[in-house]
């Protein structure tokens, strides 16, 4: 009896350990497929990780961090929805509230689309990295220049936009306090963004807590929404570089054949000519396969970004029109005008990225 129970317990323990090890290996294998440090888009990955959308490999507690990010976004959304009822009758406040509401909804839509399709995103990134590694081994200076230029361009816009956008919510949040201390802003307490949470929004300590919460809401909204557009723009840059590399390889085949025809003797060795022809055909076959891969990469990218770009352009059109109307008709204080203009600049640049890099 005792020995049988021990064998059962030992078998159960062994099975549990085996299951745990297998589960760990599966998790490790999945984490191994997450582009992070070795990818050309490593900087975009880290910026999106700040926004909670890109899960870093082998990082514990990221689910809790993502829940915190979503809490800031949904609390912001609820505050704006309640503001529609509370601010009803004040056209300026309602319009500002609607603009922020549309922005928040678009940001959440992008966030969930990206998270749901994250495996597809990782496949596209890995495909780009694989192609770049293969093309780097060709030791062609023209191809190397194209790859370096695409990497540098993507890195530059990521640093600039993440840097500017990373400080924009802080400036937006601090501006009302600074202006009020200088006597330029409104005398009453106001939250950085138009929203209504409770009847005690302007009473301490609720006011201070909501002020901090709104700062994080705007900060995460930028990283989760704007930096997703930035990531897609960087993908477009790298995919366009693949097409440029294909063009270089095709032109290189033509130039090599033309050069050999000019330098070869009329009664040259036919075996050498056959070898050169075979080499040219192999190179051409590789270019055809490269072209097929590039077309598939473009199709995968379009499938991924089309719903996001469509929603972004529709929402941005509404926001730009309404914000311009507010700026031209607004009779409020100077702080409100500055904040509206800053908000408009961010929205315009968000869709300008697709127009420029697409």
TrEMBL record:
UniProt-recorded name of the protein: Odorant receptor 35
Molecular functions per Gene Ontology: odorant binding; olfactory receptor activity
Subcellular location(s) per record: Cell membrane
Cellular component GO terms held in the UniProt record: plasma membrane
Segments crossing the lipid bilayer: 67-88, 94-116, 220-241, 308-328, 340-357
Membrane topology: Multi-pass membrane protein
InterPro entries listed in its UniProt record: 7tm6_olfct_rcpt
Classification via Pfam families: 7tm_6
GO biological process: signal transduction
Chief location: membrane
Keyword Transmembrane helix: yes
The keyword Membrane is annotated on this UniProt entry: yes
Chain's gene name: OR35
Alphabetical keyword list: Cell membrane, Membrane, Olfaction, Receptor, Sensory transduction, Transducer, Transmembrane, Transmembrane helix
Organism expressing this protein natively: Schistocerca gregaria
């Amino acid at each position: 009896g005792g020995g049988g129970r021990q064998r059962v317990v030992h078998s159960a323990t062994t099975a549990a350990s085996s299951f745990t090890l297998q589960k760990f290996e599966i998790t490790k294998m999945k984490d191994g497929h997450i582009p992070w440090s070795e990818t050309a888009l490593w900087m975009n990955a880290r910026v999106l990780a700040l926004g909670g959308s890109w899960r870093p490999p082998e990082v514990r507690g990221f689910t809790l961090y993502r829940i915190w990010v979503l809490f800031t976004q949904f609390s912001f959304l609820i505050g704006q929805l309640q503001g529609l009822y509370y601010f009803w009758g004040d056209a300026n406040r309602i319009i500002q509230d609607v603009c922020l509401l549309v922005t928040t909804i678009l940001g959440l839509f992008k966030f969930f689309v990206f998270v749901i399709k994250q495996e597809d995103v990782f496949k596209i990134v890995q495909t780009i990295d694989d192609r770049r590694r293969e093309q780097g081994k060709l030791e062609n200076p023209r191809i190397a220049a194209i790859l370096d230029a695409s990497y540098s361009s993507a890195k530059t816009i990521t640093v600039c936009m993440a840097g500017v956008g990373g400080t924009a919510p802080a400036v937006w949040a601090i501006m009302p306090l600074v202006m009020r201390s200088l006597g330029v802003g409104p005398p009453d307490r106001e939250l950085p963004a138009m929203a209504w949470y409770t009847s005690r929004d302007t009473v301490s300590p609720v006011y201070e807590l909501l002020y901090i919460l709104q700062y994080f809401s705007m900060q995460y909204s930028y990283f989760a929404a704007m930096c997703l557009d930035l990531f897609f723009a960087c993908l477009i840059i790298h995919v366009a570089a693949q097409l440029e590399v294909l063009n270089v390889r095709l032109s290189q085949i033509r130039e090599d054949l033309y050069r050999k025809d000019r330098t070869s003797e009329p009664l040259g060795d036919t075996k050498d000519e056959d070898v050169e022809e075979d080499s040219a055909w192999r190179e051409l076959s590789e270019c055809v396969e490269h072209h097929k891969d590039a077309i598939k990469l473009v199709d995968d990218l379009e499938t991924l970004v089309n719903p996001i770009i469509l929603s972004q352009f529709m929402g941005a059109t509404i926001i730009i029109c309404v914000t311009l109307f507010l700026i031209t008709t607004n009779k409020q204080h100077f702080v409100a005008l500055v904040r509206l203009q800053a908000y408009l600049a961010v929205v315009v640049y968000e869709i300008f990225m697709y127009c420029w890099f697409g």
